[in-house]
Amino acid sequence: MSDNPKPVNFIRQAIDDDIKTGRHQEIVTRFPPEPNGYLHIGHCKAIWLNFGIKDDYRGRCTLRFDDTNPLKESQQFASMIEEDIRWLGYEWTSLAHASDYFDQFYDYAVHLINNALAYVDSQSGDKIRQQRGTLTKPGVNSPYRDRSIEDNLSLFEKMRNGDFEDGEHVLRAKIDMHASNMNLRDPVLYRIRHHTHQRTGDKWCIYPMYDFAHGQGDAIEGVTHSLCTLEFEDHRALYDWFIEHLPVPSRPRQIEFSRLNLNYTVMSKRLLTQLVDLGQVAGWDDPRMPTISGLRRRGYTPESLKNFIASVGITRKPNVIEMGLLEKCIRDDLDLKAPRAMAVLRPLKVVIENYPESENELIDVPNHPQNPEHGRRQLTFSREVFIERSDYEDNPPKGYFRLAPDREVRLRHAYVIRCREVIRDKHGEPIEIRCAYDPETAGGKTRDGRKVKGIIHWVSARHAVSAEVRLYDRLFSVADPLADRKRDYLEALNPDSLACLQGCKLETSLDRADPRIRYQFERIGYFFQDATSRPDALVFNRIVSLRDTWMRKSQHSSN
RNA sequence: UGGGGCGUGGCCAAGUGGUUUAAGGCACCGGAUUCUGAUUCCGGCAUUCGGAGGUUCGAAUCCUCCCGCCCCAGCCA
Predict the structure, then answer these.
(1) Which of A377, A381, A414 shows the shortest CA–CA distance to A510?
(2) Which residues of A414-435 are buried (b: 16+ CB within 10 A; e: fewer)?
(3) Could you tell me if A415 and A452 are in contact, meaning their C-beta atoms sit under 8 angstroms apart?
(4) What is the pLDDT of residue A558?
């Protein structure tokens, strides 16, 4: 268990109230995904809410797959969803499917028919749509609305028996075609779909709609608080109508909250599916995707995701959360957990002219600057090292305290070096820096007490391990890719969201690195081995960069 | 021009008529510490709660009107 304070929000307040008034002794929630895609960080909010309530109130939470539409669903998606929830660290009290209740739902439908509260409509979908009216115009009654109970019963049974083609008939609730709430204008309860269901096979050729399955499923499971997102708000009246008119075993209450939106990405399953299908990303688990599997592959931890949701909170207010908050959460988590290492992503060779050619020096260093429990390791120092290309400037801007002609800099954990000469290629680009080191500067001190402000990371050229490193940036280059309705959101895709760097140089200790460990490559960011990484061909993903106040400052002054 | 919701600093968000002349986090801006320009630390950052009226000794919290934004017209969920 975490030592985080219990979250407070309007839903928990309602639950506290229900307990106080004795309305409920046990709290039951459910997480009800449709198995038609992968979970994203928005689902994480619902998972955190429902499973968090279950844990804190010692209640129950079922994972229920809302599998009422066999056209789009698959067992593979269901399996991925289970994996994601487990990875987040939650356990469901029971696993269920809407399809487990198909027989019961059928009986409920018959019950409605018997009470003259449902009828079989034999019009086309187009016709039904026309008759539904508009937001400002009421609908009109179907000519089949007053069929006899006997006719309805026999027609509905024939629908079930497969006597009709798809679309020939539907079962509708008889409510009110004049209702201002569109959901109450005789909603469709069952449609004919001659399609094999991933679980019930060909047992059924009629399938209940969401509205006719969800609340009843909740009631059957004894769900006390059915938590869903705001777009279902208008469905609540229908939800309650079914609960009221059906002999259900319990009376759940639906409460809505606002969904999570993140800037610089998209969050709808439809759009994410499209990005995958179009090949704009490598798959559902592409590390740039806001999916749980993408974030996992990128290197995000479950704790960071949960902390993120907790800090965002639960309200009914539409919101767009800044990506920066997510990044802050993973940095916080990893700062404590991640052992440090040195890696040079864009190598520039430095030759230390006064260091003996054949000599190697072992330097014992801590794996974490604050926490000794992370242990220690050894670095090898030698005459030739790689430094980051960006740590050398021919014409250093004001405030730059890295390497430059005739300037000094400290090689982290090692010596102070001074730049003596720069060797260039034919374009004038530096390809090698010749330096001299000061042997009196080991151990973080200088003999004469002079301050060397710049500290840069390095890797011994002879001992370095090569690796591929993948750098990720936001998927879209604008905060709200859907803001411009005249433009396709795909045009807002960030062309530089992925940079694959080959030939990066890692310190020796990273040879055959444990793929489960997230490292901080000092001064660069947090890194995690990609799913494709192998011991002899390391591939690291950058989870997130470190805060970089220098870059921010230098960008400011250059603007 | 129907119905349902929502509006507290750049982004979230506490607040449920008086102890709040509005918590906290993120972002941002200073400064200190630091062998990571990281971390940590310290300080700054809404006389005001979409707007205008009103009720009250007292309002972000109650009332009225107005404005803005979101959702709903699938045999999707």
Answers:
(1) A377
(2) bbbbbbeebeeeeeeeeeebeb
(3) no
(4) 63
Q: How far apart are CA A187 and CA A490, in angstroms?
A: 35
A390-396 own/partner pairs: CB under 8 Å, 24+ apart:
A390/A346, A391/A348, A391/A456, A392/A348, A392/A419, A392/A430, A392/A433, A394/A422, A394/A430
Residue in this structure with the two tokens 């079930």, named with its chain if needed: A160
pLDDT at A553 over 90: no
Q: What is the dihedral of CA A78, A92, A190, A125, to 10 degrees?
A: -50
pTM of the predicted protein model: 0.96
Catalytic entry in A259, A346, A412, A474? A259
CATH 3.30.9.10 for domain A102-210, yes or no, is: no
CA dihedral A275, A276, A280, A285 (to 10 degrees): 110
For A28, the token pair is 């039951």
A365 touches strand B (CB under 7 A): no
- The two three-digit tokens of residue A470, written as one number: 């993948």
Is A377 an annotated catalytic residue? no
Domain boundaries, chain A: 102-210, 340-558
Residue A552 confidence (pLDDT): 85
Q: Which amino acid, residue A261?
A: N
The answer to whether residues A243 and A219 touch, using CB atoms and an 8 Å cutoff, is yes
Residue carrying structure tokens 């499971």:
A221
Q: Which residues have C-beta within 8 Å of that of residue A203, sequence separation ≥ 6? A: A102, A197
Amino acid found at A389: R
Please give the single-letter amino acid code of residue A259.
Answer: R
Quote the tokens at residue A403: 């390497």
Strand B and A237 CB separated by under 7 Å: no
Q: What is the ipTM of this complex?
A: 0.96
Mean pLDDT for A496-512 is: 97
Fold match, A102-210 / A340-558: no
Residue A3, pLDDT above cutoff 70: no
- Let me know if A328 is a catalytic residue: no
Give distance CA A137 / C1' B16 (Å).
Answer: 38
Phi/psi for A161 (5° steps) reads -75, -5
pLDDT number for residue A448: 87
pLDDT tens-digit map of A157-215: 999 999 999 999 999 999 999 999 999 999 999 999 999 999 999 999 999 999 999 99
Confirm whether any atom of chain B, the nucleic acid strand, is less than 7 Å from CB of A523. yes
The residues facing A201 across adjacent strands are A197
Name the amino acid, one letter, at A438.
D
- For domain A340-558, the question of CATH label 2.115.10.20 is answered with no
Candidates A269, A297, A410, A505; catalytic one? A269
For the stretch A59-79, pLDDT in tens is 999 999 999 999 999 999 999
Please, are residues A42 and A265 in contact by the beta-carbon 8 Å criterion?
no
Q: Which nucleotide is nearest to A71 (CA to C1')?
A: B76
